[in-house]
Protein backbone atom coordinates (compact mmCIF):
# COMPACT_ATOMS: atom_id res chain seq x y z
CA UNK A 1 0.00 0.00 0.00
CA UNK A 2 1.26 3.45 -0.85
CA UNK A 3 1.93 5.82 2.03
CA UNK A 4 -0.58 8.70 2.14
CA UNK A 5 0.05 12.13 3.63
CA UNK A 6 -2.71 14.68 4.09
CA UNK A 7 -1.69 18.35 4.20
CA UNK A 8 -4.29 21.01 4.99
CA UNK A 9 -4.55 24.73 5.66
CA UNK A 10 -7.41 25.69 7.97
CA UNK A 11 -8.33 28.98 9.56
CA UNK A 12 -11.65 28.20 11.25
CA UNK A 13 -11.24 24.42 11.67
CA UNK A 14 -13.59 23.38 8.85
CA UNK A 15 -10.85 22.14 6.52
CA UNK A 16 -9.10 20.48 9.46
CA UNK A 17 -12.32 18.59 10.23
CA UNK A 18 -12.72 17.56 6.58
CA UNK A 19 -9.07 16.40 6.49
CA UNK A 20 -9.77 14.25 9.55
CA UNK A 21 -12.85 12.71 7.93
CA UNK A 22 -10.88 11.95 4.76
CA UNK A 23 -8.10 10.38 6.84
CA UNK A 24 -10.61 8.19 8.64
CA UNK A 25 -12.22 7.13 5.37
CA UNK A 26 -8.84 6.24 3.83
CA UNK A 27 -7.43 4.63 6.97
CA UNK A 28 -4.69 7.26 7.29
CA UNK A 29 -3.11 7.61 10.72
CA UNK A 30 -3.49 10.96 12.48
CA UNK A 31 0.32 11.21 12.48
CA UNK A 32 0.14 11.46 8.67
CA UNK A 33 -2.33 14.37 8.72
CA UNK A 34 -0.45 17.68 8.75
CA UNK A 35 -1.50 21.25 9.44
CA UNK A 36 0.68 23.20 6.98
CA UNK A 37 0.92 26.07 9.49
CA UNK A 38 3.28 23.89 11.53
CA UNK A 39 4.84 21.67 8.88
CA UNK A 40 7.77 22.11 6.51
CA UNK A 41 7.18 21.53 2.80
CA UNK A 42 9.96 18.92 2.87
CA UNK A 43 7.57 16.63 4.82
CA UNK A 44 5.91 15.65 1.53
CA UNK A 45 9.02 13.59 0.66
CA UNK A 46 7.90 10.87 3.11
CA UNK A 47 4.78 10.03 1.09
CA UNK A 48 3.79 8.39 -2.19
CA UNK A 49 0.33 9.99 -2.29
CA UNK A 50 -0.27 13.59 -1.25
CA UNK A 51 -3.67 15.06 -0.45
CA UNK A 52 -3.75 18.84 -0.23
CA UNK A 53 -6.74 20.72 1.17
CA UNK A 54 -7.58 24.32 1.87
CA UNK A 55 -10.48 26.69 2.13
CA UNK A 56 -11.30 29.63 -0.11
CA UNK A 57 -11.36 33.10 1.46
CA UNK A 58 -12.40 36.62 0.58
CA UNK A 59 -12.51 37.23 -3.15
CA UNK A 60 -11.54 33.65 -3.99
CA UNK A 61 -8.18 33.59 -2.22
CA UNK A 62 -6.31 30.52 -1.04
CA UNK A 63 -6.09 30.02 2.74
CA UNK A 64 -2.91 31.84 3.81
CA UNK A 65 -1.05 28.94 5.47
CA UNK A 66 -1.51 26.78 2.38
CA UNK A 67 -0.46 29.70 0.18
CA UNK A 68 2.86 29.92 2.06
CA UNK A 69 3.30 26.13 2.15
CA UNK A 70 2.83 25.86 -1.62
CA UNK A 71 5.59 28.44 -2.12
CA UNK A 72 7.95 25.78 -0.78
CA UNK A 73 6.42 22.93 -2.79
CA UNK A 74 6.30 24.58 -6.22
CA UNK A 75 10.00 24.11 -6.96
CA UNK A 76 10.00 20.42 -6.01
CA UNK A 77 9.98 17.52 -8.46
CA UNK A 78 6.89 15.50 -7.55
CA UNK A 79 6.80 13.30 -10.67
CA UNK A 80 6.85 10.16 -8.50
CA UNK A 81 3.92 11.40 -6.40
CA UNK A 82 0.18 11.16 -6.88
CA UNK A 83 -1.74 14.23 -5.75
CA UNK A 84 -5.41 14.67 -4.90
CA UNK A 85 -6.95 17.98 -3.89
CA UNK A 86 -9.89 18.91 -1.69
CA UNK A 87 -11.24 22.24 -0.62
CA UNK A 88 -13.93 23.96 1.38
CA UNK A 89 -16.05 26.79 0.12
CA UNK A 90 -19.45 28.42 0.20
CA UNK A 91 -21.49 28.08 -2.98
CA UNK A 92 -23.37 31.28 -2.15
CA UNK A 93 -20.09 32.94 -3.17
CA UNK A 94 -21.14 31.92 -6.65
CA UNK A 95 -18.25 33.43 -8.60
CA UNK A 96 -15.38 32.01 -6.48
CA UNK A 97 -16.71 28.71 -5.10
CA UNK A 98 -13.81 26.47 -4.00
CA UNK A 99 -11.24 28.46 -5.97
CA UNK A 100 -8.64 27.01 -3.59
CA UNK A 101 -8.88 23.63 -5.33
CA UNK A 102 -7.99 25.17 -8.68
CA UNK A 103 -5.29 27.35 -7.14
CA UNK A 104 -3.55 24.33 -5.60
CA UNK A 105 -3.84 22.46 -8.91
CA UNK A 106 -2.30 25.31 -10.90
CA UNK A 107 0.48 25.95 -8.41
CA UNK A 108 1.49 22.28 -8.44
CA UNK A 109 1.24 21.85 -12.20
CA UNK A 110 4.96 22.42 -12.85
CA UNK A 111 5.98 19.88 -10.18
CA UNK A 112 5.02 17.08 -12.63
CA UNK A 113 2.85 15.37 -9.99
CA UNK A 114 0.27 12.87 -11.21
CA UNK A 115 -3.12 14.34 -10.36
CA UNK A 116 -5.92 12.00 -9.28
CA UNK A 117 -9.37 12.51 -7.82
CA UNK A 118 -11.50 14.70 -10.07
CA UNK A 119 -15.02 14.98 -8.65
CA UNK A 120 -18.54 15.69 -9.87
CA UNK A 121 -19.85 18.86 -8.23
CA UNK A 122 -23.51 18.16 -9.00
CA UNK A 123 -25.83 19.56 -6.38
CA UNK A 124 -24.03 22.85 -5.87
CA UNK A 125 -25.35 26.17 -7.12
CA UNK A 126 -22.52 28.42 -8.29
CA UNK A 127 -21.69 30.36 -11.43
CA UNK A 128 -17.92 29.90 -11.50
CA UNK A 129 -15.28 27.92 -9.67
CA UNK A 130 -11.52 27.93 -9.94
CA UNK A 131 -11.79 24.18 -9.32
CA UNK A 132 -13.22 23.81 -12.84
CA UNK A 133 -10.17 23.48 -15.08
CA UNK A 134 -10.94 23.05 -18.76
CA UNK A 135 -14.35 21.56 -17.98
CA UNK A 136 -13.16 19.18 -15.26
CA UNK A 137 -13.54 19.68 -11.51
CA UNK A 138 -10.00 18.84 -10.34
CA UNK A 139 -10.82 17.87 -6.76
CA UNK A 140 -13.38 17.42 -4.04
CA UNK A 141 -15.35 20.54 -3.11
CA UNK A 142 -17.09 20.66 0.27
CA UNK A 143 -19.63 23.26 1.39
CA UNK A 144 -20.19 22.92 5.12
CA UNK A 145 -22.12 26.22 5.15
CA UNK A 146 -24.97 25.34 2.79
CA UNK A 147 -24.72 21.56 2.31
CA UNK A 148 -23.32 19.98 5.51
CA UNK A 149 -25.66 17.01 5.09
CA UNK A 150 -23.81 16.10 1.86
CA UNK A 151 -20.28 16.16 3.29
CA UNK A 152 -20.02 12.62 4.59
CA UNK A 153 -21.40 11.06 1.39
CA UNK A 154 -19.20 13.18 -0.85
CA UNK A 155 -16.10 12.31 1.14
CA UNK A 156 -16.93 8.61 1.05
CA UNK A 157 -17.56 8.64 -2.71
CA UNK A 158 -14.37 10.62 -3.42
CA UNK A 159 -12.24 8.41 -1.19
CA UNK A 160 -13.56 5.27 -2.91
CA UNK A 161 -12.62 6.78 -6.28
CA UNK A 162 -9.13 7.90 -5.34
CA UNK A 163 -8.36 4.56 -3.68
CA UNK A 164 -8.91 2.91 -7.06
CA UNK A 165 -6.31 5.20 -8.60
CA UNK A 166 -3.47 4.63 -6.15
CA UNK A 167 -4.04 1.20 -4.62
Radius of gyration: 14 Å
Q: Multimeric state of these chains? A: single chain
Q: Characterize the biggest β-sheet.
A: 7 strands, mixed
Helix content: 25-40%
Q: How far apart, in Å, are the first and last alpha carbons? A: 6 Å
**Would you report the number of β strands?**
9
Number of helices: 4
How do the SSEs run, as a string of H and E? Answer: EHEEEHEHEEEEH
Which overall shape is indicated by the principal axes computed on the Cα atoms?
globular
Brief summary:
The protein is α/β, with parallel strands linked by helices and 167 residues long. The chain is 31% helix and 22% strand. The mean pLDDT is 91.
Describe this structure in words.
The protein has 167 residues and is α/β, with parallel strands linked by helices. It is built from four helices and nine strands, in the order E-H-E-E-E-H-E-H-E-E-E-E-H. Strands 1, 2, 3, 4, 5, 6 and 9 form a seven-stranded mixed beta sheet that branches. The protein has a two-stranded antiparallel ribbon with strand order 7-8. Strand 3 and strand 4 form a beta hairpin. Helix 1 crosses helix 4. The radius of gyration is 14 Å and the shape is globular. The N and C termini lie close together (6 Å).
